[in-house]
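Chapter review: from sequence to fold.
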Amino acid sequence: MRKIISFMHISLDGFVAGPNGEMNWIKVDEEIFDYVGYRISETDAALYGRATYQMMENYWPTAGDEPDASKHDIDHSKWYKKAHKIVLSKTMKGVDLANTTIISDNLSDRINEIKQQPGTEILLFGSPTATHSLINENLIDGYWLFVNPIILGQGIPLFVDIKDKVKLKLLTTRQFACGVTELNYTVDR
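The token string follows.
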């Protein structure tokens, strides 16, 4: 069965964005891009909320074609174009996009159907609102968190309105030179 892994940058105090959605505090460098790029290259599907999907769709399909594109931009653009995209959105209902599945209702049933299909793990990129919905339906199988060395004090939290405790098992950790720490957890069911 396929697993959904939440891939998220997070502040030390648990926020994934500032109060107005700011993400300018996130530290990334070539070391992180290379590390993340390897794992992403082994997956064939991405899951997004509508807002994150639209942001990605406005950038990644052509990012690798730019004359000054970085290695990361070229590699991720190639991957993005091939990956199957799954989008959680009530407003995009009925939209037909190539290589994209829109889920507007019956979230638990639809996600469980996708998990039964052949393929690799599904990376849930950012998308805090979608993540909250999936957490509440117990549909996330792991967390791949990049803890940034900053305390925001306020913003959009990763974990909100958790009804039942979720036990996790730590798989790996990694410290990056820029001060970011990766924590890779699986949900211990």
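Two observations follow directly from the output. Residues 4 and 140 are 5 Å apart (CA to CA). DSSP finds six helices and ten strands in the chain.
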